[in-house]
Specification:
The structure is a homodimer. In chain A, helix 9 links the parallel strand 17 and strand 18. In chain A, the strands form 7 sheets. Chain A has an 11-stranded mixed beta sheet, with helices on both faces. In chain A, strands 18-17-19-20-21 form a 5-stranded mixed beta sheet, with helices on both faces. A 3-stranded antiparallel beta sheet of chain A has the order 4-8-5. By secondary structure, the first copy, chain A, is α+β, with helices and mostly antiparallel strands. The first copy, chain A, contains 14 helices and 27 strands. Chains A and B meet through strand 2, helix 2, strand 3, strand 4 and helix 3 of A and strand 2, helix 2, strand 3, strand 4 and helix 3 of B. Strand 5 of chain A pairs antiparallel with strand 5 of chain B, so a sheet runs across the interface.
Amino acid sequence: MAQGITKREEDYSKWYNDIVVQADLADHSSVRGCMVIKPHGYAIWENMQHVLDKMFKDTGHVNAYFPLFIPKSLFEAEEKNAEGFAKECAVVTHYRLKTDPKNAGKLIVDPEAKLEEELIVRPTSEAIIWNTYKGWIESYRDLPILVNQWANVVRWEMRTRLFLRTSEFLWQEGHTAHATKEEAIEETEKMLEVYADFVENWMAVPVVKGKKTANERFAGADETYCIEALMQDGKALQAGTSHFLGQNFAKAFDVKYVTKENKQEYVWATSWGVSTRLMGALIMSHSDDNGLIIPPKLAPTHVVIVPIHKTEEGLAKITDLANTIKNNLKQKNISVKYDNRDSYRPGFKFAEHELKGVPVRVAIGERDLANGTVEVARRDNLTKEVISISEIETYIEKLLVDIQSNLFERAKARQANLTTHVNTFEEFKKTLDEKTGFVYAHWDGTPETEEKIKEETKATIRCIPLNNLQEAGVCIYSGKPSTQKVLFARAY
Amino acid sequence: MAQGITKREEDYSKWYNDIVVQADLADHSSVRGCMVIKPHGYAIWENMQHVLDKMFKDTGHVNAYFPLFIPKSLFEAEEKNAEGFAKECAVVTHYRLKTDPKNAGKLIVDPEAKLEEELIVRPTSEAIIWNTYKGWIESYRDLPILVNQWANVVRWEMRTRLFLRTSEFLWQEGHTAHATKEEAIEETEKMLEVYADFVENWMAVPVVKGKKTANERFAGADETYCIEALMQDGKALQAGTSHFLGQNFAKAFDVKYVTKENKQEYVWATSWGVSTRLMGALIMSHSDDNGLIIPPKLAPTHVVIVPIHKTEEGLAKITDLANTIKNNLKQKNISVKYDNRDSYRPGFKFAEHELKGVPVRVAIGERDLANGTVEVARRDNLTKEVISISEIETYIEKLLVDIQSNLFERAKARQANLTTHVNTFEEFKKTLDEKTGFVYAHWDGTPETEEKIKEETKATIRCIPLNNLQEAGVCIYSGKPSTQKVLFARAY
C-alpha cells in the first residue's frame, strides 16, 4: 500500500498528491481542471458539511439555492467583482447540439442555438443573489436576510491541484443583508469566528484570524477577514474568508429598504465561504509518510477491527467479540468497521486502513481472546497498546478524544516553531528560504511595498492579525515608519 | 395572505404557481428557465434529501461527486444517450471574459479563450461517470460499485414551470456497476422500491410502480422502471425512475472486469434519480385553496404557536406556557415555532402559517389559560379542537401521525376515484376529457399505436404496472390482440 507514497522530505508536493489519490479521496477527471471526489473523500466532506451546516443554523441562517448561471449583464453590474473574476469565467454560449452533417455518429454545437446573452457559470454568487434580494427587500421588516447556499462553482484554472485549486469546486457561500453597517460588520466577524471554531476544534488545525490588505481583498469587498493555517511544509493556506461588502452590491443592484423612520437606505451586505479546499488543509496538516490522518471528529469510520485467526472456530469467536465491541461503541456514537474480508491478509488491511487514516485500529487474535485482551493501535502516532477487553469501550472513547487533541496540539506546536519575528529584509528572506513558515515583520502599509516584497520573495501578507500588537517600528523593505508587524508567508 | 391564491377550480395551473410563489417555496430568476429555491422550499427539499440519503446508505450506497462538465467527445460516446439529450444541452465554449474595448464598463467573451473542445453542462452523468469507472474497475473484486451523487443538472427547456420543469434542477443520481445482469436488475428494482417507499410513506403520495414502454425509456437504458403519481387535476406525474442500463455504457466506455474464472466481461449498469420535481408532486398532491399542505414527516416546522393576548401580563403567561409546550415537544422530535412577532395580528399569522403549510397550529388566549385549555387547528382538514393543556403534547404527537396518514388516505382515495378501466377508444377519450385521471386500457404493444394514441388524445402510456393482471383483450385503438391493460394518462 504505502510503498506508493512519496516521502515528504523527498517531494512534499508529490507526497500530497499521492495521499489524495491513493487514500481514495479524489482523482483527476477527463475534464481539464475538474476533479472526481471519491467516496472516501466525499464522506469526510459530508461530515464537514454537517458540522458547518449545524453551526450556520445555530447562528440563525437558513439555506436556499440560486441559479448556476449568471447572465453577463448582471455579472458585470458590480464592476470590481466582475473585473476580479472575468479572467476565470466559464461561459455558456449555446443551448443545443445537433448531429454533425459530415459525421453521423458525432455531435456539433448547433450554430442556430446561440444565446442572445451569454451565461456565466457562477464563480461566486453575489451578482445573482443581490439581483434576487432586490425583490425580497422592501422595508426594515424584511431584514436581516441570513441565507447560505451549498453549491458548486467554477473558476477556470490553468494549473490545478486536487482539492487546493480546481476549476470546479464545492463550497458554501453565505450571503446576508442588513439594515446597518454595524450589524453587517458584526455578522462578518461572527462568521469568521464560526470558521475558526470549526477549523480548530473539528479539523484540529490552528489558525490565525485577521484582515486582508487591500491588495488581497475579495473583489467587491470593503474588508475581507480570513483565517490562515500553516501546512507541514511551512506554507500558509487560506482556510476561509468572510467579507464585509459594504453597500457595493446594494448600489450595483439598487437594493434599498425603507427604515423605521420612513427613509430609503441602501442595504449592507456580507458574504463568507469555505470550500473543498479545506480537504487539502486537513490532509496537509496531519498526514504522514504512511498516509492520511483524519481527526476523529471528522472521520467517517472511527475504529476498524481486524481479525487475526488461524482456524474457522477462532474466527467465529473473534467475530462475536468484534460485533459486541461494535454494538457497544455504536451506543457512544463511535462508528466501527469490522474488516473480515477473507481475500486480504491482516498486514495488507493494516496498511490500507493506515493509508486511509482510520484513527484507531483494533486487532484481535486467537491468543488475545485467551488472554482477555486486544491490541489497539492509534493512527496519529502509530503506537500500540494491549488493552483488557473489559475496558475496551471506555478506553477507545477516551482515546479518540486524546487523538483529536494530540493532533491539534501537534499542529499548534509546529505552527509556533514555524513562526518567526524579523526586523530586517535580510532576516526576512533568510527565514523564508531556510526555515519557511509564518513571518511577522513591519510593513509601511502601502500596496507598492507589499507588491515589491511579493515580487522579490514570493511571500504575501497573509493577514493583519486581529487584536494585533501595536508597536512602532520601521518597514523591513522601505524603512518607512510602521505601527505593527503583519503576517507574511509563502502560500498555497 | 391567501386572497392572492387563485382557486383550483378557476385555474389549476395558476393555483399551483400562486402557491409556489406565495408560500415562499421558489421563484423565477433573471436566468431564463432557472428558479431560485427560497428558504422555506429548500428546507422541505433538505428534509427530503436527509430521508433519501439515509435510505440510500441503509441499502449500501455511498456518495461521491463528479464534474459538472462533460467534454463533447465523452458525451457522444453512448449514442442513444447523447441523441436523447443533445437538443437540451447548455454548452460552454469559452473560459474567459475581457473588457469590451468599445465600452469600458462592459465585458465581452474573449475570442482568444475558445475551448479546443466544447464542454457540455451535465444533463445527466452517465458519460462522465462511466468514463471514470473505467479506471476504478479491473476485477470482480472491485464490484459492485454503489455510488450516489447529489448535484445540479441542466436540461434546456423552452417552457418552464417552477419545480416541475426548469432548465437547472437539483437531484440525486445513483450510478451502480455490477458483475451480472441479474444483480443489476435486482438493484434497479430495489431502488424503485426505495423511491416508492419514500414517496408513499414520507410524501404521503400513492404511486403506481411499473415499467416504461420502449418509447418512453431513458435514452441509453434497456429498461426504465418508474413510479407514477396522480395529481389533484387528474394529470399524472412521473415521480422517480430507475434504469437498467444493460452493458450499453460499459461498451461505450470499454469498461470490462476480470471474472473469478479469469474471463473478461463487460460490466452491467443501473442509474436512478429523483429531483426537485418531487416538490411539485408534494405541492400538487395535498394543497388546497388556502395554500400549501406539508405532510408532517417532511415539514420543517410541525407546530406553530400563536399567542392571543390583551395585556402584557397575559402575554407573559402565554409565553411561559408556549415555551413549556415547545420544550416538551422538542423531546419528542417535534419542531415548534412560537410566533410572538408583535408587528402582526393573530389573524394575519393564522393565514400566513396556513399558506405556508404548517401541519398544526396552537392558539393560546388569556381565557384559555384560565380554562386550562388551548385551541388546536389541523392544516389538512382545517378543523379545530379545544384541548386540555395537561394532555397537549400527547395529543399533538398523535395528531401529527393522524395528519400524515389522513393525507395519504385522502390521496389514495382520490387516485382510486380517478382510475378507470375502459374497453373502447370512445370510452377512453371520454374518460380523459370528462373525468381525467389514470385510464387502464388494452394496447397492442406497438410503438406506432402508442404514438397515434398520443397524437390524438395527448395521453401517454405512463407505465406497464408491475405484477399487472394478464388478460386477453383487444387494443382500444388498433383492435389487435392484447395480453394486458396498460396505464394511460395525460401527464406533467
